[in-house]
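A.,

Following up on our hallway conversation. Structure tokens first:
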């Protein structure tokens, strides 16, 4: 297809010359500095064939050297190479490279797990101004893209669709988002393993929950320590169990999971077969959250306090973004009266607080489809701690940003602890349709009429080991590079 002059001029705003990305490429015919230089990371396996098609299209409209297939190269390795190259060029007084570094943006196309992986890697770079990130919805839930206005339906992959998306990237505003560290520690079991058991489909994302090595600063002698991180949510209980079954089934029978609509239908069917719609029959009370663990929370600059979890709650969600399970908002919008009575604040994505919500079963979850529906609001917290009861169960199910796992628990250990704490922030790109709210939006969004919502469903420090997200364990700058200059 012939490229029109207007398209060509438009694409110059995003185009990065090859010499910036590859030291083996000669400098020649360098254009004007792009206003919005982008690195594009695509999970070619996401969205059926969509990921592969999108990869082909992006490589046809931009420099193929700025487009990366995550199945071929991990993002931490790519960013190490790019930032090392930029630093070298800056030291050589290359003004073009300096401008690229200042204006760089990232596009990531994939599911929530893929997007979270990229965010985790960027977080671990610890740059003073991390490149803001736009997300293309290629997964099933697409909670991250939906929260920041990029939609939740899988996009088109043709040239025109890519140009329209780049136009949105050009107009997008920067917005900060909290990220959260999760740590689980237990005494090393006398027999057997307590390593997380991933479903067959779990992608190899470096930010996913895993045991730290013996040389890791968080390792404790005689204990097994696991860590991970998340941006959207951590959940435990029956919703994670259904998700685990979905990922396993998709790997065993990929022909049944060809597109987003079919995937969502299969997810609902698995919810039925797993007993989520008849939890009182198929899900024993011994596996309800209150019987599994004691839950404690800490407000900002406060003390640990016990959190009352109703006996009927079978799933608990610690939520950072206003989107869960494909765009639903479990927290909802509390009325002004309820905010005052329970000391609640609006659910901002950059306030250092998580919203903690509980659900009894799938029928309870269906209230989210109502205009003012929400789960059982339990608390807002800066840190959350789960202390598992000795011998309560052999295992439980957990989930981080759409990636579930089965977690074995030692039978004779009463020291199993899962702790969630605020880690830091990175920059997102948000469109005008962004659903997430920032603390900077207080004046326009924090007041609601007292009668706005009926709340009948409601019921009543950072240590050294929380310094790193854990997404880029392989990310290392060469010794000759001065990391302090990467600002």
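Then the amino acids I'd put at each of the 487 positions:
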């Amino acid at each position: 297809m012939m490229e029109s002059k207007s398209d060509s001029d438009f694409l110059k705003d995003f185009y990065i010359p090859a010499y910036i990305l590859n030291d083996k490429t000669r400098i020649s015919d360098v254009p004007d500095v792009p206003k919005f230089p982008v690195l594009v990371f695509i999970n070619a396996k996401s969205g059926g064939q969509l990921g592969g098609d999108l990869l082909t299209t992006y490589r046809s409209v931009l420099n193929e050297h700025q487009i990366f297939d995550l199945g071929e190269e991990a993002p931490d390795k790519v960013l190490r190479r790019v930032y090392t190259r930029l630093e070298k060029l800056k030291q050589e007084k290359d003004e073009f490279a300096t401008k690229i570094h200042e204006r760089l943006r990232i596009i990531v196309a994939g599911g929530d797990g893929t997007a979270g992986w990229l965010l985790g890697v960027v977080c671990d770079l610890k740059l003073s101004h991390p490149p803001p990130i736009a997300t293309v919805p290629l997964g099933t839930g697409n909670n991250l893209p939906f929260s920041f206005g990029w939609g939740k339906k899988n996009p088109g992959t043709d040239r025109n669709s890519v140009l329209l998306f780049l136009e949105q990237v050009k107009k997008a505003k920067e917005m900060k988002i909290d990220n959260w560290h999760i740590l689980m520690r237990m005494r090393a079991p006398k027999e057997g393993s307590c390593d997380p058991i991933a479903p067959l489909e779990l992608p190899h994302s470096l930010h996913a929950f895993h045991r730290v090595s013996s040389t890791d600063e968080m390792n404790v002698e005689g204990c097994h320590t696991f860590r991970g991180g998340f941006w959207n949510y951590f959940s435990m209980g029956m919703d994670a169990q259904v998700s685990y079954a979905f990922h396993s089934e998709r790997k065993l029978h990929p022909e049944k999971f060809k597109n987003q609509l079919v995937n969502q239908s299969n997810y609902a069917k698995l919810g039925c077969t797993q007993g989520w719609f008849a939890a009182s029959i198929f899900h024993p009370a011994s596996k309800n959250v209150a019987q599994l663990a004691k839950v404690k929370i800490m407000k900002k600059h406060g003390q640990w306090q016990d959190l009352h979890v109703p006996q009927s709650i079978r799933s608990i969600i610690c939520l950072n973004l206003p989107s869960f399970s494909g765009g639903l908002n479990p927290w909802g919008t509390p009325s002004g009266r309820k905010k005052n009575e329970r000391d609640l604040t609006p659910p901002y994505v950059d306030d250092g607080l998580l919203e903690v919500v509980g659900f009894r079963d799938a029928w309870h979850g269906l209230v989210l489809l109502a205009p003012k529906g929400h789960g059982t609001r339990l608390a807002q917290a800066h840190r959350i701690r789960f202390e598992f009861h000795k011998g309560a169960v052999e295992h439980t199910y957990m989930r981080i940003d759409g990636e579930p796992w089965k977690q074995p628990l030692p039978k004779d250990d009463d020291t199993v602890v899962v702790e969630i704490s605020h880690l830091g922030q990175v920059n997102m790109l948000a469109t005008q349709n962004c659903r997430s709210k920032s603390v900077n939006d207080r004046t326009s969004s924090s007041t609601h009429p007292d009668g706005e919502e009926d709340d009948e469903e409601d019921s009543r420090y950072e240590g050294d080991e929380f310094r790193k997200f854990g997404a880029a364990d392989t990310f290392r700058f060469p010794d000759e590079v001065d990391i302090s200059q990467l600002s």
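The chain has a mean pLDDT of 77. Curious whether your intuition agrees with the design.

B.
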